[in-house]
Structures are given as structure tokens and as C-alpha cells.
Amino acid sequence: MGQPDDPLNTAALHPWRRVHASLMPDYNPHATVAWWLGLVAGIVALAWAAAQTAQTGSLVALQAALALVVAAALYPVRVPGTRHSYAAGDILIFLVLLALGPAPAALVAAGDALVGSMRTSKRWTSRLFSPAAAALAMAVAGLGLQAALGLAAAGGHDSAATLLALTMACSLVYFVVNVALVTGVLQLKRGEPFLQPGALLGGYRWVGLAYAGSAAVGTLLYLTWRDHGAGTLLVMLPLLALLLLTLHFYFRQQETNERLLAANAEAAERAAVGAQREAEAAQLHLREMERSERRFQSAFTHASIGMALLGFDGRIQLANPALAALVGRDAGTLTGRPFAELVSADERGDVERALGLVPGSEFQSFARELRCQHASGGSVWLALHASFFTEPGADEPCLILQAQDVSARRAAEAGLQHLAFHDALTGLPNRRRFMECLASAVTRSRGDARHAWAVMFIDFDRFKLVNDSLGHSAGDELLQQLARRVQERIRPSDTVARLGGDEFAILIENLEHERDAVLLADRLMDSLKTPFRVAGQTVTSSASIGITFSAFGYDSADAALRDADTAMYRAKAEGKARYAVFDSALHTAVSQRLRLEGELREAIAAEQLTVVYQPLFRLGPDRRAHQLVGFEALLRWRQSDGSMRPPEQFLPVAEETGLMPAVTDFVLHCACRQLRQWQRSAPDLADLGLSVNLGAQDLRQGDLVARVSQALVESGLKPAHLTLELTEGILMDKPLLPAAQAHATMQALRLLGVQLAVDDFGTGYSSLSRLSQLPIDSLKIDRSFVRQLQDSSDAAQAAAVVAAIVQLGSTLRKAVVAEGIETADQVEQLRGLGCEMGQGFHLASPLAPGRCHRLAGGAPPAFALTETH
């Protein structure tokens, strides 16, 4: 790449160049060199002049001369018609030159130039360079004059005329050198040659003449002083000052006269030009009016937006083709027709008022969007703007109407409005829209109690199961079918909305009797009994419905929906597939349930849950013959006040709120670690087993096998020592848990080496074919059958059931365990029926880990009866 044209572009590489660029930004390299050379030469001249003056001893006279020169330089006389001025200091400079010599004259000239530059320029470069140039020029001219006078005297030509001629010649040399230095730098800054004689003589000739005149006057003053003494010179100085003052006022008068003449000429010229311009403006205005009218006609006719001129009676005077196309009519047929007839009937009155056609109304400019009638019978939305207008060439004003088709935007806005207030999946109103309708109903009922209404909160049972098992697309399809089926059962005046997920709500307005809402709930539940076809499979669904009424005096829509939701949870808790009507007691119960859920979450986080262990025995002929074979891990919640909360109070809440997997993981990890600790403490405990209960949520979780495996690995427990118990209801409830999913999960657990047991066996509706296919290892007889063994009325029947279960277990090669053994007679009966293993309070209550170790070490189980459970 080439070098830059300006060397100062490399200022970043040289610190002094950075300084130069900031102080002299408009000086190019050539101008900079010339400026510095001139400045250095001037400084040398000043130093020489100062040294010479000090040697001659003329300092006092020099000081006086400098004072006079400075004073004279402060009050120059400007030459009219030019930018130059004349100062009396120039006379004194030449007087000092003749009287004291070149060195003092150079100093005086520098002082005069310094004062002049300080007065006329703010640039520091000018204030430095002007005195330097003046000193250098006077030194050159003065030395030249001194040499010329010496030669003249040697030749016998030392007359006054010779002195005058040589001094004037000296002034010309001073002028040329001084002006050449100053203008040369300026020429170089503009990129021009250093010396231009034409510019030198043309622009500064007055300066040269002033220097020559000053030299002549200075010579005469010098001759007067030389020949007649200082007294005569003192008389001459006031006369000279008076002459300069007169000259100053003369020049001022000349300038004033010239300005007056110029002003008169300019005024006359302006008057003539003004008259001519007025005539031209009149003709131009006329032509512009004609062009404006043509432009308006062209723009009006060819405009892409609809335009019309209306009279103040609202009739169309002129319509362009674009407006005719917007309303599907011919432009000619619109002329003379009231514009309001083109507007939809429901907005026609507003248009007539806006146009000032209704008595008591006046027209004002307006902008609005209106629905107009198209000739085809449809509607078109137009954005209208109407204002006053004066047509070119018209005698009176009219109205101009501009119309743009905004039908597409209106349709898009309507679509966005629908999206904002409707559910995208089902097309039903969404929660936001439902809450607006409900709020409006609440407001009306507060003003008029006869405006009765009801809210139904619907939650479809087992929807999550379909969503998890068949996929989200199947769940969406089921929701769409459910929405259609609900819509088919309600009145047109009712509002059904999807609140989110599988939760729907219905607002029944103008309710005559509360039983009408109950009858609607019955109809909805009956309609859901018909199966749905989803993803190629037949799916049945039911609904839990909560109902509340305006009779409760609600103040807000939120409160009404909350109570309907509360009633829905009551219906779900009572067994689902039913409805429940809200009452105050229900609100209290649900509030307590919500508080229990919050406390349970805190208990899990604060580790307030504990695990106790109920021993499992192989039954012997007496208490001391019972053999301990394992434990069942049971969860307990010890509250902050030390009391124990029964599991039946909080486990259903954990199942409903999704906390069950966390609870199961806690029990699983604690129990596995504890059993492994017992096994390591004594060799005779190495074969003890452990049972842990699973919930329906656990079995539906895809990561159940991984969670169990993690607990075994972390504790070091062998999988064969762990038994996972699932209730018969969980395994046999197909909608709750599809057979394929249950079988796959259980098979994976068996491959892991874990034992599986059916808990509470006999209370469900087990299919023997399915039971035989499940990879289970044992059956646990429900405690209700064991309890009935001592009931005289049901003992025989209970014994038969127990015997059947034992026989079934033997046939399927499954171990059988009896739960809830509370008496020694029950032990004997169970042993007689062939049941070999059991657990219950008679054998041992649930024990803390320390008490379990005593039992495993051979202590009699009788102490367990005192254990808190």
C-alpha cells in the first residue's frame, strides 16, 4: 500500500506530530515548514536587534519610541473600500530607523506588528508569526538602507533628496519582504505557490503605498529633527496627529456618502424589482391555480383510495372510481345520492350526526371506521376521514371524504380477538372470557336478585391416564370430543369454557330453579357413559362436577369459581363420576385439606417423616415358635408438637397432589439402608426381607425401576431381600393402569431381582387369568377377612375365603401372608387353614429401628404390644 499524501497522518507514530495536529490542524506540511522557517528567522532577527540596541546604549529612546508606536497602533485609520488600515506607528518606525538604526527599528516594527495582530486575530500562529515577519523584514530593509546610505555618502550624494529616495525604497523592500512572508504562508496553506506577484500587488498595494508615505513623512521628521532640533520636532508631532485625525474623519465621511448612495440605488432597484415581481407573482398565481385544479382532478380521479365530495346536505357531489369500486357500484350512480345510504343500518344514525344532518348537531372533521354495504349484499369495513374542503374554482366550500378498505385488518383483529378469548384446541371460550361473563353475571345479580345463575366446574376423571398412556395427541382428541358432547347438552344462552387441561366450566344464566343445574349435571354424566373412540381405541370417561349458585351472594367471579372448584373436589373425593353442590361446610373441609397439603410439603422438606417397621413372622405353634422373616416399612408423620398424624389422613392427599413418588422414595431409601445395617450387624440377620408399599402414581412413573435400583445400589441391599407391595385395586383397575404398562413395569422389577406382592388381596375384583399372568411372588390377605375369623356370623364365610386364597396361592405357587392378626385364636385358625406367614399387633406392632433390633436378636415379641403405633 502507498504512503498517505499527508505526512501528518502518521501523527500516531510521533508524539510531536500529535501535538502539531492538535495546535495547527489547518497547516499542511509545506505551510508548516514555511511558518517555522519564518518564525525562526524572525526570532534570530529580534535577537540580533536586541543585542545591537543594548550595545549602542539607545534603550531609553527605544522605549519611548516603542510606547508611541504601540499607542499609534491601537488607533489605526481604515482605508475606505479596502480591508487595510493605516497607523501613525509606521511613521515612527521609519523615524526610529533613521535616528537610531536598523536594530531598534526592527524591535519597534515587531512591537507594532504584535499589537496589530493582537487586535485583528485570535490565532496564536498569527500573533507569533506577524511580529517575527516584521522584525525580519525591517532588519533586511534597514541594513539595506544603511548600506545604501554609506555608498551614497562615499560618492558625495548625501543630500536630503537622496535620503528621502533611499528611505522610500527601503519602505518598499520592507513591504515586499513582510507581505511576502505573511501571504506566502497563507498561499501554501491553500496549496498554492509561495509567491504570487499578482496577488501581492493587487491585494496589498494600499499597504505598500501606506509604507511609502510613512517613510516619506518619517524622513521629513528626521530631517527636521536633525537640522532644527527636537523642539521643532515636538511642534510637528501635534500637526501630524491633527492631519491623521482629519484624514480619519474624511475617510469616515467618504464611507458614509458611499453607503448612502448605495442604499438609495438599492432602494430604487428593489422598488423596480418589487413591481416586476408582483406582476410576475400574479401571473404565476394564476398559472398555479390552473395547474392545481388540473392536479386535483387528476389525483381525485386516479387516487387509489376512495374519495368523494359531499355537500352540506350529505349528498355525494362527485365520487372517484376507487370509492365506487369499494362499494361495488358505478361512480355515476353515486352522484346525488346521500352517503349515509351506503352505511350499514346500525351505524347510519352515527354518520348522520357526524355530518351535522341531525338537528342540534354540527359538522366537525372526523375519522372513524364504519361498516358499509357492498352492492353484492356483503359488508366492507372502511376507514373514513371527513373534513372541510374548497375545490379549486368553486364558489363555496364542501366536504371531502376519504375512504380506505380495512376489511382485511378488521378480519385479522377479529381473529386475534377470538384467539385472545377462546381456547385454540376446542374453540370454546377460555378462562379469561369465562371470567368476564361470570363477572358480568355477578354484577347483574347484585343489582337484581331475580337474575339467578349457577356455575358448574367440571373435571374429567382419568384424563391424565389417557394423556400419559396414549399420548398428548390422543388426549387432545379426547378433549375435543368431550367439548362437543358438553356443548350438545347446554342451552344456547349458557356459556361453556375450557379453563385449562381437562377442567371445564359452565355458566348457566337466567336460572329459574336450582334443580335445573342439577338436572344438567345428570344429563352430562349420562352423556359421558357413551364411550369415545380415540387413537383407534375405545375410551370411557366420567366427570366430577362441582356446582354453586348465585344465591350465596357472591361479590366476585373468582369467589364463585373457587367454590365450584371446591365442590368438584368433594365430588372427586366421594368416588368421582358424580356431582356435589357447594355449601359452607364443604369450603371449610377443602380449606383444611389444602392446609394439610401445605403442611405435608413442609414436612417432606423438613424431614419430619419417619419410618417404622412391622415385623413379619413365619407362624409357629406358640408365640416363642414364631420365626422373624422380615419387616414391612410403614410411614409415620411426627408433627412439631410430638403427636403422630395417622397415615390414612395424609397418604390420600399425597396421592392426589403428586407427592406420592417423593414419599415413596423417602421410605424406600430409609428402609433399604436400615435393613442393610441390621444385616451387617449380625450374621443371623443376613436373610431378613423388607416390604415397601407402592402407590398408583409410582407404578405409572416411567422411572420407577431406576428409582428402586438407585435405592438398592446406595444401600448395598440385595434385590432379593426387597419386596414391593401393590394393592389389588391398583393392579386390576385397567383405566387407572393399563395391563400392558403394569405388566412391563413389574417384569422390569422382577428382572432387577425384586420380589412383588399383591396387598389387600380379596378386596378387589381380580381376574384369575390376569392374576396368573402378573409376575408376582406373594399374596397378602386383607385384614378384613382375618378380623372376620372371630365374628360368629361371618367366621365360616371368612374362613372359606381365607382357605380359597391359600389354595389359590398354592396353585399359583405364590406365598400367602395374613395381615391384621390381633389374637392368638386368629393365629391358630390361620395355621389350620394353611397360612404360614402373618403380621399384626398380636405378633408385633410397628417398631422404631432400635426395638426391631432387639426383636431380631431373639427377644420375645410380647414387648411390641406396648409400642406406639
Explain this structure.
The chain has 869 residues and is α/β, with parallel strands linked by helices. The protein is built from 30 helices and 23 strands. Strand 9 and strand 10 (503-509) form a beta hairpin. Helix 4 runs antiparallel to helix 5 (102-120). 33% of the residues are buried.
Number of strands: 23
Q: Span between N and C termini?
A: 95 Å
Instruction: Bin the strand percentage.
Output: 15-25%
Taking the sheet with the most strands, its summary is:
8 strands, mixed, barrel
Low-confidence stretches: 1-13, 858-869
Q: State the secondary-structure class.
A: alpha/beta
Helix residue percentage? 55-70%
Separate helix tally: 30
Adjacency order of strands in the biggest sheet: 15-16-18-19-20-21-22-23
Q: Please tell me the overall pLDDT.
A: 80
- Label the overall shape: elongated
Gyration radius, rounded? 58 Å
Task: Name a few traits of the molecule.
alpha/beta; eight-stranded mixed barrel; five-stranded antiparallel sheet; 30 helices; elongated; disordered C terminus
Summarize it:
The protein has 869 residues and is of the alpha/beta class. 33% of the residues are buried.
Set down the secondary structure blueprint.
Layout: H1 15-23, H2 29-56, H3 59-73, E1 77-78, E2 85-86, H4 89-100, H5 102-120, H6 124-154, H7 160-189, H8 197-228, H9 230-302, E3 306-310, E4 316-319, H10 321-327, H11 331-334, H12 345-354, E5 366-373, E6 379-389, E7 398-405, H13 407-421, H14 431-447, E8 453-461, H15 463-470, H16 472-487, E9 495-500, E10 503-509, H17 514-527, E11 532-534, E12 537-539, E13 542-549, H18 557-573, E14 579-581, H19 584-606, E15 609-618, E16 627-638, E17 644-645, H20 647-656, H21 660-681, E18 689-693, H22 696-700, H23 704-715, E19 722-727, H24 728-732, H25 739-752, E20 755-761, H26 768-773, E21 778-781, H27 783-788, H28 795-812, E22 815-818, H29 824-832, E23 837-838, H30 849-856
Helix pairs in contact: 2-5, 2-6, 2-7, 3-4, 3-5, 4-5, 4-8, 5-6, 6-7, 7-8, 8-9, 15-16, 21-23, 23-25
